[in-house]
Amino acid sequence: MKPESLTILGAGIIGLSLAREARLRGLRVKVYDSRPNGSSCTHSATGVLKAPEHRRSPYLDLRHRSWEEWPDFAESLKQESGGLDVGFRICGGLDLRDRTARDPQRAVEKLYGSGGAVRILEAEELATLLPAMKRVPQSAVFIEHQAVVDPSSLMSALEKSCTSLGVEIHYDQGEIQLQSTTDGLRLQTEAGDTIAQPSEMEPVVLSAGWETSALADHLRAEPLPLEPVRGEAISLDIPAPPHIVTFDARLKDVPDPAGNRSRFSWIPGPGGISWFGNSVGDTGSGKERSPQPTTTGRSRLLEAAESFFGAGISDRVIDHWAGLRPKSLRHGGPLLGSLDGDRRVWIATGHYRTGLLIGPLTARWVIADILGEGEIPEVFSVPQAGAD
Ligand SMILES: Cc1cc2nc3c(=O)[nH]c(=O)nc-3n(C[C@H](O)[C@H](O)[C@H](O)COP(=O)(O)OP(=O)(O)OC[C@H]3O[C@@H](n4cnc5c(N)ncnc54)[C@H](O)[C@@H]3O)c2cc1C
User: Fold this and answer.
1) What's the rounded Cα separation, in Å, for the pair 339 and 168?
2) Which residue among 138, 229, 273, 357 is least crowded, i.e. fewest CB within 10 A of its CB?
3) Atom 50, ligand 1: which residue's CA is nearest?
4) 3 state SS of 175
């Protein structure tokens, strides 16, 4: 029998996309979040959506399909939310990474699968487009298929869409635990008070970002292959670039000048503001796992920004924030599917750096699978406890 109702834990982009999708398919939906509205990792994102270079793996294909669906998703949210604009705009991107500047022709050839126009820009055109840049790259590549969205507006529109469709959202519930008892599943507070007791026919989806592991811990012997990875960003008092700019910063303590930790983006944020960031930082353990911005993160961002704009950037910082991204430790994309074959408990997390891009489509997959109307590609399934 198909379930008629659903309980969702976590109200970030994944939880609310699941709720909206389930409600559109006629399920009754309740969402519970431990924290106040506005504190999810999704609210710290910098809103970049990119079509990948090609679709030669299931994860890249998922990103590609998500890219193709985003314009319709933004439009649907606008209608469902009574006109809220999520700030979706195909603004294009400038790839100024070192390897691109060295061999732009090769970069262009690799990008043919991205679906949009790509072309090489010479130093003169770049200097006109980016007057605030102090670097003088020989060349760069313009990539049409890159877009921005405003994460806060996105979350407001998604929440409004959910509530107008009839989803119940309960924020600020304190630490929620999920227990399996002889009477079925129970959501409870840390002190053991019952928050809700889903019926046997009511699946529960765990979409609590990196903290999904703590929820699943009570249900299985092994931790989920998931870890938090800190990301930090700043906004700058510098006019926003016309396109998303991606470059390799030269950082003193990072030996790999083309790796993840050296790659930074200068982003046209909402209202014409400059956002700068997406740094991949270190995340401590236990109580250090806090989404507060750090002094180390700030110095790293300033060093990267100064390698691009020149000295004196610290006086131009307007804001600084951080978030903990849910990274799946299993290679190849998010963790989606039922937990150890139990169709009462589902997992939807591990979206790492692409939650905004792929969240809506992965939500559709999970709901279709719960209803028995479609299957999530096997490659994204949650590794069974005890499997090698
Ligand atoms: C600086 C930065 C920049 C980023 N930029 C981009 C970008 O440009 N493009 C992109 O696609 N992605 C980006 N990301 C990644 C993106 O933000 C994440 O992939 C996405 O937000 C993950 O969403 P989520 O719903 O899984 O988790 P979250 O947004 O963290 O939501 C999880 C929710 O679960 C709640 N919760 C926790 N524990 C419990 C519990 N026990 N019970 C109930 N609820 C609980 C939390 O309070 C939270 O509200 C960025 C991330 C960062 C940090």
Assistant:
1) 24
2) 138
3) 45
4) coil
Longest dimension (CA), the chain: 71
Two structure tokens written together for 103: 């061999």
Residue owning the nearest CA to atom 24 of ligand 1: 209
Ligand 1 atom nearest to CA at 323: 53
CA of 224 from ligand 1 middle (Å) equals 17
Domains of the chain by range and CATH? 5-83+151-225+330-380 (3.50.50.60), 89-148+230-324 (3.30.9.10)
Q: How far is the CA of 101 from the centre of ligand 1 (A)?
A: 33
- What does the radius of gyration of the chain's CA atoms come to, in whole angstroms? 21
Q: Which atom of ligand 1 is nearest to 351's Cα?
A: 19
Name the residue of 153, 356, 380 to mutate for ligand 1: max ligand atoms within 8 A of Cβ.
Answer: 356
Residues having CB within 6 Å of any atom of ligand 1:
9-15, 32-35, 39-42, 44-48, 176, 207-209, 211, 215, 231-233, 277-278, 323, 325-326, 349, 351-357
Which atom of ligand 1 lies at the shortest distance from residue 265's CA? 8
The DSSP code sequence of 316-383 is GEEEEEEEEEEEESSSSS-EEEEETTEEEEEEEE-BTT-HHHHHHHHHHHHHHHHTTS----GGGSPP
Q: Is the pTM of this model over 0.90?
A: yes
